[in-house]
Amino acid sequence: MSRKSFSAAVKGPPYASSRERIRQKEWFPMPWDNTRRTIYTETVDKTFATLEAFSLRKKAAYTYKHQEYRPYYYGTPSERAQYQFKLRSCLIDQISERERNKEHFSSNTEESERMTKDSIAFSQREKERTTKQKQYFMTIRDSNKMLFELKSKQETEDRLAEQRKERQLLQHSPINWSKTLS
Q: Region entry Disordered: which residue ranges (predicted)?
């Protein structure tokens, strides 16, 4: 197979348009129903425009919040008065926001101080409880130890007493001291 015939076999017969190529089975072996496609609802241009508008709104909000108090040099006296009114309202908003943040911060600090005091008190109570529990278990251990020692001492005394008794019986009747022989 020559190179020319191989490329002709791969490309297929020359058709008038690309639609005719799509309709051919060799170019599109699977029917449309069985194929999966990813569909974008917005085009790239629309997405770019949306993101651009979002960034512009974000910049405008930033400038409104942080750069609104710059002096207004040009314009009529009424425009200057409007600008000064807007400037004052912006500054009042910033001051009230700062006050709210301070109140929120102070309430948070009070709450955190209370929580630290509570955690310290809880740890102290827990430490006291563990020391009491340790003392209680130590007294139980000591009393059990004493009981074991007393029991072993009593057993040795009983054994020694029985041995003395047997020795005495053996002295009296050496042959049948245990009275088992009849």
A: 100-132, 158-182
Separation of alpha carbons 34 and 52, rounded Å: 38
Cα–Cα distance measured from residue 141 to residue 154, given in angstroms and rounded to the nearest whole number: 20
Nearest to 110 by CA among 98, 120, 102: 102
Ranked by mean pLDDT, the top range of 35-44, 85-94, 132-141 is 132-141
Alpha-carbon 149 to chain mean position: 54
CB 21 within 8 A of CB 27: yes
Check if the beta carbon of residue 107 is closer than 8 Å to that of residue 86. Answer: no
Q: What is the DSSP string of 100-148?
A: HHHHHHHHHHHHHHHHHHHHHHHHHHHHHHHHHHHHHHHHHHHHHHHHH
Helices of type H across 15-76: 18-23, 44-66
From the CB of residue 136, how many other CB atoms can be counted at a distance below 10 Å?
10
Q: Tell me the per-residue pLDDT of 16-50, one tens digit each, with 9 for 90 and over.
A: 555 555 555 444 455 555 555 555 555 667 778 88
* Residue 24 CB partners (closer than 8 Å, separation 6+): 12, 15
Which two structure tokens, joined as six digits, stand for 179?
């009275």
Q: Looking at residue 69, what DSSP letter applies?
A: T
Task: Quote the pTM value.
Answer: 0.35
